[in-house]
Amino acid sequence: MNPDELLNANLKEAVTKKAPVRHKGDLKKVVIRHLRRISNSPNRVKKYFQHAPVKYAA
């Protein structure tokens, strides 16, 4: 695994927990909102690199 895969798994989990979206534009909004939330939290981003399976990359 690498940090990108952890981010993708987190994004997938966050998006599927919400009510299903009916339009592509709505899905885009949900994804962008979640990614912005993550990008505004540097400690959360660091955790992707500190996770045991990906420490080799840090």
Unreliable residue runs: none
Total separate domains: 1
Helix content: 55-70%
Main sheet overview: none
Structural class: mainly alpha
pLDDT average, as an integer?
A: 88
Task: Please give the alpha-carbon distance between the first and last residues.
Answer: 13 Å
H-E string: HHH
- Share of residues in strands: under 5%
Number of strands: 0
The total of helices stands at 3
Shape: elongated
Radius of gyration from CA coordinates: 13 Å
Any key phrases for this structure?
single chain; mainly alpha; 3 helices; 58 residues; 69% helix
Describe the structure.
This protein has three helices and no strands. It starts with a helix and ends in an 8-residue tail after the last helix. It has one domain. It is mostly helical.
